[in-house]
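Side project, low priority. Logging it here so it doesn't get lost.
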Amino acid sequence: WRRLFAETLGPFLLVLAGTGAAVVAAATHVAIGRVAAVSAPGLTVLAVILSIGAISGAHLNPVVSLAFALRGDFPWRRVPGYVLAQLLGGTLAVLFLLAMFGRVGSLGATVPGHGISGAQAALMELVLTAGLVSTILGTSSRAQNLGPISAFGVAAYVILAGLWSSPVSGASMNPARSFGPDVVLGDFSHFWVYLAGPLAGALLAVGLAHILRGPGGHDSLASRAAQGAPEG
């Protein structure tokens, strides 16, 4: 239950930061620059991994749980619980913002940018997520295991991806991040972009990990990084 609580709390904080910029800017009429808006989620990822990574592995993202399971480093039986917890955490974050500020700023929903088609946005999400999941799998492997320091690599990737690509797709890379605003708004017209793209990107990253490091499931350090070790 500690793992599930952590996987609810982590996405709550992540989605709060990811959606909060648009909502707070709309509610207060104080502009929040794009650099700040994309840095906040990345820095939140850094803080969350360092604080709860040892409890649940700090997946924070359904496709990360899927990737770890496909690599054999995470039990499949835990995947449904993790995914539900992550979706719940993201939704609770948006509900909190709705209660605080009302239905403003589209509640931080991720949508394709101006002049960008759904297919283009989905392809961008695929490439971005492949890079993100590759970074996560790489820094948790025995060959390059960085322990808690891996949080800096993951956070840096999230920020860098957002800096150059957020005008295209919003740089979600996380179905839970996009699910929260969509379910609260009751508008899933663009959700397929943020489901199909990250899922395909995670599968690509798993394939790349197989090429680079061989089959998974035999790396005790990667398994520990993926599963955490809650006390009690």
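Brief comment: The two ends are 11 Å apart (CA to CA).
Revisit when time allows.
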